[in-house]
Structures are given as structure tokens and as C-alpha cells.
Fold these 3 entries.
Entry 1:
Amino acid sequence: MVILASCEKETTSPIDLDETTTPLSEDFIELPEADLNNRIIYHNRNTNIVATQSVDEGQNVTNPITHIATIRPLTRQGRTLHASHLDITNNRAYVSYASADTSYIGGVDVINTSNIQNPRSLTSVIYTNYKINAMVVGANRMFLSGTRRPNSFSPAVTTAESATFGIHNLNSTGRPSGSLRATRVGGYNGTDIAFHNNLIYFLSGNNGRLVVYNTAGFEQARHVIDDGRGVAVSSTSNRLAILTGNNKIALSGISTIQQQTVLHIPDESVGTKRTIDFYEDKLLVASGRRGLMVYADGDNKPAELIQQFPMPVSVPGIPANELVTRSVSYNPDNGLVVTANGAAGLWVFRKNNTTQLLELVGKISTPGSFNYVKSRGNIIFAATADGGTQIFSINM
């Protein structure tokens, strides 16, 4: 089955607001710094992590993780926005938001993490016509994947054409600066985005596309995608992976994007958000009820399932459909892998130097259902469905 179709077109035209959208400067609202600081609830308390070798006995190891704070979600006009994505870079954390209803409201929190024991607000912004489903930071810019209100385009478009790629410049402090530039891409929703070697890989979902841009917004290549949901690029093997809504993964090189391998990923959790990430020469897949699946990947051989860490069959008081692995993050700074598992909490993995395989070293359980996780340095940021974003520091 072909997931990643041949190149549709190539263009050297940059994002041009006059061609595809009305200017977005009117849609960009920067909130007072006190808004976010008032939404940060400080805990600074040790969080016991359950050691995997003694889960059944309920024993704990000695406080390797500290629960630093909770960031309550952005609100707009009586609506509570849901944290949708995270990125961490240069002592800054970026949390994107999307409205959960049929409105098209999005936003971004920017947090200074230089002192992780006391994270502070840099700014919060609201996009009144642009809900953000994914974002990544690079080259002093925020690159956004989402959906813009169809009638806010000029001329207006249908919902099937409202997937939108956006660029917002960042100033020297990490704050968004100037106007948001955006263009519609094709497809109903922008679903994911990745940054590698000064190229941006934008993915849209149903009726969607994989579009490659450079950092100035010039389109480099465009491919038709069968319902793209997640994209990841390996910094070590120069490989590209695309997860689709029908539980398949296309693997390709990135110098010439052309489908080389298709993985079939069985999953019972239809419709849930799931992500993928690369870990050394392996592909990590958040696989819903089936938990974390680890594949060995190579240019000249089919990817092979080498490990799986399934969700528990049941947990008292928690619906089975809330026990799902929705997100996975590899931390190149300390070698840890962290998964967000809905109401099953966060799971932390580390490579066993003897077997060279991942081992589950512990589980973090706090209230809420975790949808997305990102870990860099000694920090874990984890987004919950409607309870805001949790911040943890790691000492492992």
C-alpha cells in the first residue's frame, strides 16, 4: 500500500499572505505576563516513582523526580483550551493550545526554564482564528501546524482545505515577535510538524499532504499522504517516518523522500492522538492500548519489532480506553525515553547497557490523563486533556 506518494510539485514561492490569507496581525493577541504567572501552581515536591521490579508490591525508589509545577490551561471567551503539543529548547518551553469545540482558537505559552525549580512566564499569545495542533521551534522561529477558520481566508475556503502552516518569528528572549505568517496547505487539519537541518516537515491529515519548507517559508517539496497523523525525523540516520490514521507507518530517507518500507501497527484505540520518535537507530511508536512499540530500523532491511511494553489490561476505577500510550519522547541529553499513557500516567525507560534494549525503570502517577510528553535536559513537560501541563525535574 502506498502511503507516501510521489512528489506532487515543487515551488520556490515563499509564504505570501496576500495570495492565501488575510493578514494575521489582527488575530494575534499577546496576554500580560501576569496571566501565565497566575496560572502556574508551584508544587516543588518529590514525586515517588514506582520501581518496575516491585510494581505489584507498591514499593518506591527514592524520589528521582520532583513535581515542580502545574500550568493551568489558557482560556478564551469562556472556553478552556487544551494543551496540544510541546517543545523545549534553549531554556525555553513552548506549550501550544487548541480549542476542543468547533471554534478555531489556539495559543502558545512561552516559559523560561533556566531555573527549573522556579519556571516563569515569558509570554502567552492567543490566535483567534488558528487552532494549533502541533508546533516546533528552530532557527529563532515557531513553526505551527493547525487549522485556520475557513472563512478567515481570502477568498474563503472549505474545511477540507483549511489545514494551515504558520511561522512566527521569535525575538532574542524567545517571545513571538511581529505578525504570524501562514498559508493553507491542503487537508482538513495540520496534524504534526518536525524540524531537521533547517527544513520543516509539515503534515496534514485527511486528504492531506507532507510539505517540506525551508526556514524562510519557501516550499521545497510536496507529497500526497494517506491520512497523516505523526511525523518524525532521525538526526542520526537521516530517516523520515510518517504515522497514518489507519495504523501504518511509511519509512523513507530524507535526502530523496520516497517510501521504502511500510509498517502495519495494530491498535484498538481508533481516533486517539499518538506520536512517533526516533531513538538512536530505532523507531518508537506510541501504540494506544498496545503501549510502546520499538522497531529496529535500517535503510536496507525491513523494520523489525524488537520490544513492546503494553498497557495494563485493567486498573481499578479507570476505563480501559483511558489506558493508552498517546505520546513518546526520546531525550538525547540523558538517554531516557518517556511515554504519556493517558490515565496510566508517565512511564520512564532507559537503555540497559548489557542488552542494549530499553527497560522500564519506573512509572509516575499524578491526577489527570496525559496526552503528550516532551523531555529535554533534566525536564519533563507533560500535557493533560483538560488539567493543564505538568512540569517535572529528573534526577536519574
Entry 2:
Amino acid sequence: MKRILLAVSIVAIAIGFTGCKSDLEKGDEASAKGEFDKAAQSYQTSCDSKKSAIACNRLGALYERGKIGDYDYKKAFSLYEKACNANVYEACASAALIGHALEIKVKDALPLAQKACDNAIAYGCAILGNYYIKGSVEKDKVKGGELLKEACDQNSAIGCYILALIKKDGDPLEADKAFKKAEKELQKPCDEGYGYYCFALSYLYKAGLGVDQGYKKSLSLESKACDAKIRDACYSLALGYEYVDRDLAKAELYYEKTCDLGDGSVCSSFGLERIAGYGSFSKNVIKGAELFKKGCDFNHAYSCWRLGDLYDKGEEGFSPDKTTADELYKTALPLFRSDCDNENDENACYMLGEMYSEGRGVKIDNEKAILYFGKSCDSRINYACYILGEMYSEGKKVKIDNEKAIFYYGKSCDSGDKYSCEALNKLKARK
């Protein structure tokens, strides 16, 4: 009898142990049933206790796919990065991919893609290959093409998609084959809620690449990607509704959504369109100012500067307010300086030259104005060269120096600026 009881106890203990599931397993089980909140709790527990970095990766995917409330790329990136640091290599590639939505700099995304690729994660190699093609690290189209081909051969949707794009003009047959494979591989992750894949797929249907062209299908996929907070998809929808469908209400909706998602350049450009009343939209200074304010809150230099300009000049609906204008110019100044110094935006150097020349947010400093106009001119911003030519030819804030004037007018004239050519000819005739 004792032997029977002992045997029963041993079996019971064994069953107990085999029935005890880890938090990772509980999360997987709940996720498979579509119980994502429950899955998230289990993954979070496992991730926080450092029992499973895989749980961090899977929790990141739930945030990226919008399965826990709204889409949250910041949380997804943080979790992917944590998993990557624990050598879950798939997470490294995922972090590199969604880094675009968060405007993570290439120098920070590069090691993530490299680590994934070094450990045989195909779409990590695809991202890395794209960096080489675009010259984000060093321009090497051969190396980039090889990485993309390798990724596509391993059924990477992103790899096939980018490979097809670069082959489109030079090797149409190879491109068509890659586009068809890309369409097949993009559909599943799109259906699972990965917005980037839906946006890539929408382009195939819009352009009829590897699939039958279908504008309505493309719009549907772009809408899905935009709902997943892919800013480029929202912007593409805005352009389509403005210029193709001529549905200005929807165009405005998607321009504003792109702005709300943190694209300061769209806040600024659409705000300018509303203030000036050009293009398809009627003039609305208040609406334009609201868009500038949003862009400035996203640390977009031009948005801050343009809002400052409204208060400075006292545009319609705005009484002149030099104090507010000055504060906004001061906000824009370090943003322009950062972009200029890091060569992110050659126009930023021109804007700094203008601010120092006119004393917007700073004391007038002609030496600094010339320095920044010069940097902008060196970056082939013709108007900066023209301004310098004008300053030296007419003695505006500097001593007249015709040789320097000829140099700067000549530089922009050589780049095709007709006004500089006219000024150059007049100056030479005067000599």
C-alpha cells in the first residue's frame, strides 16, 4: 500500500512539474488565442525578472503591432533594444527597422543592424544593405546589393523589396521576380499589424510592380499603415487626396495627422501653405500658426522660426509681439546650429546667416553672418552665394570687395543661378 501511495505521489509531483508553465509560455499561449493584454502581462513579468529576453522581444512586437492599446514605437524600441543586448538577434533587426519612425540616427541604428546580420538575421542584412546603397555609412552599392540579394534569398520581405527597387531600371526581369517575392513575403507581416510592411506593399500596388496595379488596394494598405502610425504612409495619403482624388478635406486630415505624428517638416510646409493660401487650400493664418506651433514643439527649427516671423511682422490675426518673436527665434537658433554643424541640412546654415545678419533672436554679428552664409554657399545653396556677392559688391555690412563679389556671384552663376549671372555681368562691366 505504501508503495502504491509513493508511486501516486511521484506521479503527482511529476505532473505538477510538467504542468508548471513559464511566464514566457503563458504569454505565448495567450497571444496565440488573441488575448494580448494577458500575454503582455506574462511577457512583462518574464522580461522584468530577466528570466527571458525572448519575452522582451515578444512584448516589443505587441507594442509595435498595436495589440496593447495604441501603437507605441518608443516602448517597442526600448524592449527590442533590451532583448538585443541579451543577444536575441531578431530584436536587433526589429529595433533598427522601427528606428526610422523614431528618427533614430543611422549611427545608432547601424550597430543594431550589423549585430543582427552578423548572426544570420536576414532582414538585419537587408537594413544594412540599404545603408550601403544609400551611403548612410559608406557608399558601396556592390556590397549593399550582395547583402540585399542574400536577404531576399532567405525570404526577407524587406530585402526583396529594396533589392527590386534598385534593380527596377537596370534589370527589369530580376526586379519583377524580386517584386513578386516581396509581395508574397510582405503580406503576412502586414496582416499581423506591422505597419512598415503594409506601406511597402502599398507602393507595389500603386506602381504595379510585380502585381496588377490597383490604386484602391494601394489606398487601403496606406490607410492601414497610417493607422499604424507610419508617418510616410499618412503623408502619401495626403498627397494622393490633394493631387489625385482632389478630396481636400481628407488631404487636410492626413497632412495634420502626419504633423501630429511628429513630422515637423510637414507641420511647417503645410502651415506655410495655409498661411500663404497657395496651392489647393484657402488662406487661414490661424490654422497655419497652429501647425507651426506643433512643429516647434517637435523641435523643428523652421516651424519655430516661421511662427516667430508671424509675431515679428504682425501678420493677419497676429498683433506684432517682438518679445514672443524673439523667444521663438532663440528656440530656433540652436536647432539650426545643430543641423548646420552636423551637415543635416545645408539650408540651416543659410538661416543662421540670416538670423545673425538681421539680429533675429541674437545681436547682429556680421562676421558670423558671413561665416554661415559661406558654409551654405559651400553646400551649393545658390542664394547664399548671391547674398555674399551682393554684400561685397555693394558694401552691405562689409567693405566693398569686388574680387570676393565676383567669386561668390561666379560660384552661383556656375550652378545655374541666372540672377547671379546677371549681377556678375553687371559687376564686370562696371569694372
Entry 3:
Amino acid sequence: MKTAILVDGGFYRRRAYAAYGDRTPTERADDLFEHIDGLRTCDNAFRPVLNVS
């Protein structure tokens, strides 16, 4: 099943800067794609967010 993920760019940029410091836009995009790819391989990626047991 295909899933679309919407990312609030402004929020992401502020949080990523606070967490990881100054990086180039290309590095930021690569980090985001790696994170999303990691969510696809995790069986229960959304359980903590949705509070589902």
C-alpha cells in the first residue's frame, strides 16, 4: 500500500536545526528521506504516535 507523508517544511527546518545544527539543504533532504525510509521498515512506526496498543 502506498502512503503519502506530508511534512511541514518550516517546522522540520527549525527542529532539525535545533537537533543537528547547520547543514546544507541537500544534507537536510537526505536526512529526511533516510528517516522516512526507516519508518517504512518499522512494523509499529505509528503506534506510539496514535497511542494504539
